[in-house]
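Quick one:
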Amino acid sequence: MTSSLELSFLQDGAQPADKVAGELADFLNGAQRSLDIAIYDLNLTGPPAERLRAAVRASAGRGVAIRLLYNVDFPNPIPVPPPSQADTEFIASLGVPTKPVSGVPDLMHHKYIVRDGTTDGATVWTGSMNWTNDSWTREENVIVKIPSPALAAEYAKNFGELWETARVEGSGKYDLAGVPVAYQDSPVKAHVFFAPGRGRRMAHVIADRIAHAKRRIRVCSPVITAGVILGTLGDLMHRTHPDFKGVYDRTQMAEVLGQWRVDPHATWKGPAFQAVSAGLPFASKVTTPYTPTSVHDFMHAKITVVDNTVFTGSYNLSHAGEDNAENLLELDSAPLADRFVEFIDAVFARYAATTAAARQ
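Output:
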């Protein structure tokens, strides 16, 4: 536990794309042997695109072995979540081995990098951030960088099976032990789940933690559609509960509510979500409805904090996410949880006023 976990939080309009591009380029340039990249959406333009391409090519030129997985082929025109728009021409221009993974019917939704995965300096980059200009400038996102050979080995195992099969189905079907990492000289226990193999378990672990919370709960997710989590939040609403704040994407949830109305298996979810979002302190971001050419300003961070435990990664609190290729980090640490709560509370405060106006 000699190297500390690092966090970066992005907010709508709070940072230029060049700053994020620099952070990503620095991470890539730090590779000595290998970079395994699994990214849902890669579509960059302008200087950020050039900076990423230069970092990838420079790393490859030093002899770093680079592989890149990306999602393709989601069939629906306006699904939730919005589809990836991978720029295959740009990806080819990187000059490294790449492999598309079909998003039909389930997404390759990861956003992680395994750097030097077989060495003592192995580090994982993960979180909610895609590699697009809007992701870097107009969305709420979180980046987690964790120096840990043991954790990197877990991500490398997941990457390997996706690389070999180019299929979401069948990946992540294993149980992984917790590993020790550090944050600001404090010990952190880290555990990672991968969907679809452990997708149902991911939702149930989060719901169970919420149900047994003692001090505080924070929920930050574009959508909240997993039945077990909706049910747990509904129970919470009807009893004395710990300090609670939640944030979601109002536009995306409105689209989900429309889908539920015509789905005979999900009609109960609409009233359940509306009751929960009105009965608990939730704020929501009104975002631009998706089109391929619209600004993509989604509330995109995926975080749940319960007491001193943080859950974060690529997984929305969604039923569909249980079948996608997703990763979910469970991190136990009071100082780390405090930092995530600080971020969620700031996002909550930013959108609380517009939420109140939308309810009137």
